[in-house]
Design goal:
572 residues, alpha/beta, nine-stranded mixed sheet, eight-stranded mixed sheet, 12 helices, 18% helix, elongated
Length: 572
């Protein structure tokens, strides 16, 4: 399956109290909620969807995130390798080209394996190789499985820089537990279905693995008769664009096919990454022209005229879908983000970046079940905006459904793709935006902060540094004997959850002091270093200042043991 990178760009509207902004002449126009709601500082949403990467593959060693289980930088998990009779642990993979693994509905179920998260290597070993199209989702593109590999700032420095300066979501799941076409259908309609009667929404039924495929040779064109988000956008006069990058599609038309050829893709040719032209609503609303070349996206950004909602999808070369180069995908995404940041729209913009599915790569977090369709496996998610919180890691449960929910809350007055209220009923199993497990993206923003400046990055960055534990210690350099006898308080902050153990020496004698505590990533805490009975006696029996030499060892998930030495003078 393809792993789309989702870039959501939103621009801010300063609407006078009680007024509404309507669409003509206003790219962000809509029938809006009261202007007092700060979400309406967001006027433009751009969704850029990349391909086939799991969270642990890209951010599994990011400090503070729920990443690969490790101790002092050494993985503690090992996934069975049945072909060779042993297991494979996660490991750093510096390769720019990866193979990945198969990623259909059956593969998702096997990889998760009832929550054990241990099927990745076995599925990759069973995958077909030497396929006519190396992007066939039933295939793997490497001789030996590389699904246990991870990248870090050495390979993807810009993605890590965005996470460091803005928001990283470490519990973002694919909305469906299958491949690219169903995911793209969920992205624009919150459902993947197959319709028995053309033009009849009532005839549609759930299809997690096998919705009708665009441009399938010898087959009739699909008819997506159920309701999609553009129906509500058109009803509320909210502008939108779906931007397609010229090139070939990296996925097959059938995710379980044994062999297939790459499909042509441009702004006129629908495909599995471009399903909107086959929705009855898009044709009936006369909005087929909203599906257009990505060149128009760059032009709209330069002109400060982005539509209220934009989706942007890549081609195979820049998709990050194996065997596409990771570096070329990162460069493409950086150019998109830079274009928005250089635009006059940036001051009112939010960007959501994600990947459409896990691509067969390892992830250790079992996905929650919300219905028969998902969620699928965990994928990376980024929020980039002048109003995004700084260096924040969102640990709440999210899926790509949250993007639709955000758009609905901002532009549609909270209207949902709900058969009972949207005026165009269909038999979808549930209203995904209202799933109780789904959190709200508003928590990733601080709409009261001073808008933050753009972060323009080079599309061809130098490699960054691997993740390291960076503890910071604050405390007194001199204390009185009375204070020392009560315990010396020091404060500690680590960039990843860490375990600190302090020991002290005095007068050449070890075991003069001790302390031990765990500190949550990014949260400053205090620990009281207590003197041993030997040190207490030495203080009471001396009239001279004594020197307590502390050694603090820090253990964490992401790196080797770090040690900090500190000397404290205890005066009489």
């Amino acid at each position: 399956m393809l792993a789309p990178l989702l870039l959501l760009t939103v621009a801010v509207a300063e609407v006078a109290g009680g007024q509404t902004a309507t669409g003509l002449g206003d790219p962000g126009g809509s029938l809006r909620q009261p202007a007092a709601d700060p979400i309406h500082k967001i006027r433009h949403v751009v969704v850029i969807m990349q391909e086939n990467r799991s969270f642990d593959e890209y951010f599994g060693t990011y400090p503070g995130a729920n990443g690969i289980p490790m101790r002092d930088g050494v993985p503690t998990e090992c996934v069975p390798d049945p072909a060779h009779g042993h297991c494979l642990p996660p490991q750093h993979d510096p390769a720019d080209v990866n193979g990945g693994g198969p990623h259909s509905q059956a593969d998702a179920a096997a990889d998760v394996n009832g929550g054990k998260m241990d099927g990745f290597v076995a599925r990759a070993e069973r995958a077909r190789r030497n396929c006519r199209n190396p992007t066939n989702p039933a295939c793997s593109n490497s001789r030996l499985p590389d699904v246990m590999g991870w990248h870090d700032a050495r390979e993807i420095p810009n993605y890590w820089a965005y996470a460091n300066k803005f928001v990283l979501q470490d519990r973002m799941f694919e909305p469906n537990a299958s491949w690219s076409l169903p995911q793209h259908l969920f992205m624009v309609s919150e459902w993947s279905a197959r319709c028995a009667v053309p033009g009849s929404a009532a005839s549609c039924s759930n299809a997690l693995q096998g919705p009708a495929n665009p441009d399938r040779p010898g087959q009739p064109a699909p008819d997506y008769a159920w309701t999609d988000l553009t129906w509500l956008l058109h009803m509320h006069q909210v502008s939108w664009g779906y931007y397609v990058f010229r090139g070939s599609e990296p996925d097959c038309q059938d995710s379980a096919a044994l062999a297939c050829t790459a499909q042509a893709q441009n702004f006129k040719t629908p495909g599995i990454w471009n399903p909107l032209p086959y929705f009855d609503t898009v044709r009936a609303d006369g909005q087929l022209g909203n599906v257009q070349s990505v060149d128009n996206f760059f032009a709209a950004a330069r002109a400060g005229a982005l539509p209220a909602v934009s989706w942007v999808v890549p081609n195979s070369k820049v998709s990050e879908h194996p065997p596409a180069k990771v570096s070329e995908g990162q460069s493409y995404v950086t150019k998109l983000i830079d274009a928005v940041m250089r635009s006059s729209d940036w001051a009112s913009t939010a960007i959501f970046v994600s990947w459409d599915d896990w691509g067969g790569f390892y992830d250790h977090v079992p996905p929650p079940t919300v219905d028969a369709n998902g969620y699928g496996l965990r994928v990376p998610g980024l929020v980039i905006s002048p109003y995004a919180r700084h260096g924040f890691i969102d640990h709440r449960t999210l899926s790509h459904d949250a993007y639709v929910k955000f758009i609905e809350d901002d532009f549609l007055g909270g209207a949902r793709l709900d058969p009972s209220t949207d005026g165009r009923p269909d038999p979808r199993p549930d209203v995904r935006e209202d799933a109780p497990q789904l959190s709200d993206l508003r928590s990733d923003f601080d709409f009261h902060q001073q808008p933050r400046p753009a972060l323009i990055l080079s599309p061809t960055p130098a490699p960054g540094r691997p993740a390291m534990l960076r503890p910071r210690v604050r405390g007194p350099h001199r204390v009185s004997a009375r204070a020392a006898l009560r315990g010396i308080v020091i404060s500690i902050r680590c960039n990843d959850t860490c375990r600190a153990r302090a020991t002290g020496t005095m007068g050449g004698r070890s075991r003069a002091a001790h302390a031990r505590r765990t500190f949550i990533a990014g949260v400053r805490g205090r620990v009281r270093v207590r003197l041993t009975s030997f040190a207490r006696r030495a203080l009471r029996g001396s009239s001279r200042p004594r020197h307590l030499r502390l050694t603090i060892n820090f253990h964490s998930r992401i790196g080797p043991v770090r040690t900090i030495h500190r000397t404290i003078v205890i005066s009489r």
